[in-house]
Amino acid sequence: MTDCLFCAIVAGALPSTEVISTDLVYAFRDLHPVAPTHVLVVPREHIVDAAHITSDHATLLAELFDVARRVALSDGLADRGSRLVLNIGPDSGNSVAHLHLHVLGGRRLAWPPG
Ligand code: DGP
Fold this sequence. Notes:
The chain is α+β, with helices and mostly antiparallel strands. It has a single domain, classed as HIT family, subunit A (2-Layer Sandwich), CATH 3.30.428.10. It is 20% helix and 22% strand. The chain is built from two helices and five strands. It is globular and about 35 Å long. The structure holds 2'-deoxyguanosine-5'-monophosphate.
């Protein structure tokens, strides 16, 4: 999709720090990390946000979460744990209209979030 920041990153038109790349999904480090590990896992296909996921996306969703699991493993988060976040809409602070799963970890994370 034109004018989508994460579509441009997935296409390699904008730089990013790759963590894991698969046919369906791309994982890269967040530009403004809020934790020692802050990775974004995004579908290569443009989906606006998690409110736009349907049963047609079952395979893609499984891949998204599998890649998030592999990110946590490769960043050494398996023992202490991590947090997965999907922001939807303005009240969540969502700023990029391309589905992205935040993988956060490497420090104690506050709950509930602010
Ligand atoms: P959200 O607030 O859920 O929409 O998260 C969007 C995230 O995207 C936010 O944590 C900052 C990150 N981000 C924004 N622009 C860029 C960029 O150009 N490159 C990278 N790597 N991350 C970005």
